[in-house]
Amino acid sequence: MLLLLCCLLVFLLGSHASPASNQAGGVTCVVKAASNGRDSAKVIRDAFKTCGKAKSGQRNRIVFENTTYTIASVLDTTGLKDVDIELHGTLSWNNSNLNYWLENSLPMGYQNQSTAWRLGGDGITFQGYGSGTFNGNGDAWYRFINGRSNYPRRPHQLTITGTTNSVFEGLIFLQSQMWTMTVIHSSNVLLQDIYVNNTSKTGAPTVNTDGADTIYANNITFRRWTVDNGDDAISPKANSTNILIEDSAFYRGSGIALGSIGQYDDTFETIQNVTCRNITSHRTKYGAYIKTWTGVNKGYPPNGGGGGYGYASNLTFEDFKLIDVQKAFSITQCTNFEGNQGDCDTSKFNIHDVYLSDFSGTIRGDVVTTLQCSAASPCRNIQLLDVAVINSSNNTTPRQYQCDSVKRTVGFNCTGPPDGEDNAFKKL
């Protein structure tokens, strides 16, 4: 009987995160993965419940060991306080039952989008030591979606929500199910040394696989990111202020994207004080671009909308190294319901005080930039200085700066109107 009780105790402790004291005066939970590839989500939830909130003056720890944790159900770990999360192994999402995720993914609070993991709190560190991995096993989703945009309830990988004074670093994200990371209703967050690769192993199209997005977020820093994907690399969206993106490299995809924004009819939104610097863009669509919805409301989010207003201002892009990108920079106010065109002159969302400098490298054509602004609220004060790019196809110097409804340019002259409408829903 005693032996049986001992064995039962070992089993219980081995399959749960058992708390122990740590040097910071708090408690530590070491998460034990469920055996035989079973769902570890309950063990993870229990660890956050036990160790996710430290007592005043202390710090708790949650430790994922150097092993693989299968995750087959949603995680909701918010309200954390002063906790250090260590990921030494791999969190691997099980997508064998896509209907489960479509029925149970958690709302993330914008555009009717949802997520596989909602995490948040104050004083969080999430450390991956350069090898801790989120593997979304997204090929199952890429094949299922087959290029359809914003499929309802397709889950994001990780949503950082209601988070303040926190650091996420040294993490790897592979094949995210949809958007990789969303930072929403959060402030004072540093995200650095992050690697994202959302390319498909089967050749399926990888739409909506953004590296990171910010929404209702202030003072967010992205430093030393590498993103290889089929969509936006990092995208500050509605009510993103004081955003810094620096020392990063982006491959394929669309590049840095501000927006889309202005999607909600008669709703004010803003993007302010965004700085992007020391960026290398490899075969992306743009080095960076800004996109707003038209002023005509059609359909419903996330694939429809329009008619919103507000402004994007004090946007700085400097020291961009371009390697065979399509265009150095672009603005489009033509984003429209998927498959629709027109109404490019109707947006009341204003874009002003945009500063670009030190762009060098190669682009695929003769158009340096296209500024497709709205006649209902023209862009103003757009500055481009020290642009030295070469056409990668013929080694000539590109000379076209296409403009529509732009007031006051500095450092360049508009050479003519845009040569085609750019709806952000158009595939790369």
TrEMBL record:
Keywords: Cell wall biogenesis/degradation, Glycoprotein, Glycosidase, Hydrolase, Lyase, Secreted, Signal
Keyword Ubl conjugation (UniProt): no
Gene3D superfamilies: Single-stranded right-handed beta-helix, Pectin lyase-like
Gene Ontology biological process terms in this record: carbohydrate metabolic process; cell wall organization
Signal sequence segment: 1-17
InterPro entries for this protein: Glyco_hydro_28, Pectin_lyas_fold, Pectin_lyase_fold/virulence
Family: Belongs to the glycosyl hydrolase 28 family.
Protein name: Pectin lyase-like protein
Organism: Aureobasidium pullulans EXF-150
